[in-house]
Amino acid sequence: MVAQVQSKDSVEKLNVDKKVYIETFGCQMNKADSENMLGLLHEIGYEQTDKLKEAQLMILNTCAIREGAEDKVFSYLGHWNKIKQEMPSAMIAVGGCVAQDAGQALLKRAPYVDVVFGTHNLQRLPELVLQAQKTKQPAVEIWQELPPELPELPVIRNNDISAWVSIIYGCDYNCTYCIVPYVRGREKSRTPQTIVREIEELGQAGYKEVTLLGQNVTAYGHDLDPAIHLGDLIRMVDKVKEIKRIRFLTGHPRDLRVEIIDAVAEVESACEYFHVPIQAGDDRTLRRMARGYNVDFYRKLVDKIRTRIPESAITSDLIVGFPGETEQEFMRTVSLVEEIGFDACNTAAYSPRPHTPSASWEGQVSENEKYERLRFLNSVITEVAHKCNKQYLGKIVEVLVEGKSQRNDARLSGRTRTNKIVNFAGTESLTGQLVNVLVESVNPWAMRGVLNDPRYVTNS
Ligand code: SAH
Ligand code: SF4
Ligand code: F3S
Q1: pTM for this model (two decimals)
Q2: Which of 33, 48, 323, 430 lies deepest, with the highest CB count within 10 Å?
């Protein structure tokens, strides 16, 4: 029998030193949720470990966006179960979008899981863990929507320079391929007061950059009373002087109104970087995806951004092999990538998802064909991205230093305001600083340069 947890009693604080290991799949919102989970569990005596085998609690924060992501969940769980057999007191919890969708059914495939919780009730995680511990029965609790009053959750972040800040949850669109509205519910914005308060604290704690997050971040604030828009919020966040860079992710082209572009243009800390997912470069496909715009609308939007902020980087998401997509339609997506000249794109082969209309449509494209289209599109994107990056050669860019480069210990790595990775030689003490770097070479994914900053370079 499965224990139904109903009690809303406040979580009992345990004064023990336990370790939690967390694995996060999916988008930045999921990463931000994981940081909240760590904050919540800290309150009952857990601290994070990066060693699976020393954890008393293993959490899988799952993603359901594509079939492959979901398969990965069960392969991880199988592996974790083996560890659990050697350490029977260890517990396994599954949260995120797969858990939200599967709920109780997850136990059929993975009966050894101790806690299943969804995307709407993170705050219940500590109590569910304690419940499962006490009853030795799985604790499963999924809420169908977020509570009317959004709780302010504790957070432990993994990065101390740049912070994710969720500002709106859910999505009110119904793109015919996408499971997100089903697993994340309707749009619900946090109030600007709570967001600004959190960002002020981040500023005081030494953070330099915030990324405002939402499944549809550009819709921020329409559900508040009084309604505001993302541009208003950017202007409010800009008042937090310690925060030097504001980014936002990920939006829908239809909601990227001119007021938001104006705010980015006028607010110094707002970065000249727009991630604007188009999904396909063909009108019939866009219509069947129910995206609510056509290619010409998108072209005009890009024109607006580039006219107002010429140095902007523009990136996108693209899906290939949507059901019924012809070769000719696919080639229109390829041409659009060349025409727009995207700085980078996330690409994916269409994956049929439960609860989405297009999963049962005729004309599903074969796996082989999807793979071929993906390969070709990626090669074009790489070329286009390389061309974009070449424009930086010989220029001085402002870089927020994130730390040592993962590829080469002797170098530092950071990002430009336009979100380009820059590697250069320098001492680790520059981590967290904004420095000027002269770009000397580029590839499609990153740049290399030399420190060119009178504050840190002395010319002898
Ligand atoms: N709200 C954003 C996207 C969020 S989902 C937007 O409207 O564009 C992140 C990305 O996952 C999408 O941009 C899309 O490219 C991809 N995606 C979503 N569902 C998918 C599916 N069924 N198959 C393949 N890729 C998918
Ligand atoms: Fe999914 Fe984005 Fe469409 Fe919402 S707007 S349904 S998140 S693709
Ligand atoms: Fe995946 Fe859920 Fe994000 S499905 S992409 S983790 S909203």
Answers
A1: 0.94
A2: 33
Q: Which ligand is nearest to the CA of 183?
A: 3
Beta carbons of 175 and 291 less than 8 angstroms apart: yes
Dist CA 394 CA 287 (whole Å): 43
Q: What is the pLDDT of residues 226-245, one digit of tens each?
A: 999 999 999 999 999 999 99
Asked whether 250 lines ligand 1 (CB < 6 A), one says: yes
Q: Is the CB of 181 inside a 6 Å radius of any atom of ligand 2? A: yes
Together in a domain, 99 and 205: no
CB 395 within 8 A of CB 439: yes
Tokens at 98, concatenated: 């797969």
Distance between Cα 4 and ligand 1 center (Å): 34
Pick the closest to residue 268 from 382, 166, 417 (CA basis).
417
> Which atom of ligand 2 is found nearest the CA of 178?
1
Total length of the chain = 460
Hey, what are 289's tokens?
């995806």
Question: 97: closest CA among 207, 185, 183, 217?
Answer: 183
Q: C-alpha distances in angstroms, 65 versus 107, 113, 129, 352? A: 20, 22, 26, 9
d(CA 449, CA 395): 10
State whether the beta carbon of 215 lies less than 6 angstroms from ligand 1: yes
Q: What per-residue confidence (pLDDT) applies to 1?
A: 27
DSSP per position, 356-388: -GGGG-S-PPPHHHHHHHHHHHHHHHHHHHHHH
Q: Which two tokens stand for residue 138?
A: 């799985």
Residue ranges for the chain with pLDDT beneath 70 = 1-16, 458-460
Domain of 75: which CATH number? 3.40.50.12160
- Cα distance between residue 36 and residue 48, in whole Å: 12
Task: Calculate ∠ Cα 166-170-175, nearest 5°.
Answer: 130
| Domains held by the chain: number | 3
Pocket test for ligand 1, best of 180, 319, 381 (most atoms within 8 A of CB): 319
Angle at 18 between CA 14 and CA 22, to 5 degrees: 120
74 lines ligand 2 (CB under 6 A): no
What is the structure's pLDDT at 410? 81
- Both 266 and 367 in one domain: the answer is yes
* 282 and 382 both lie in a single domain: yes
Residues near 315 by beta carbon (within 8 Å), at least 6 away in sequence:
273, 274, 275, 276, 342, 343, 344, 345, 346, 419
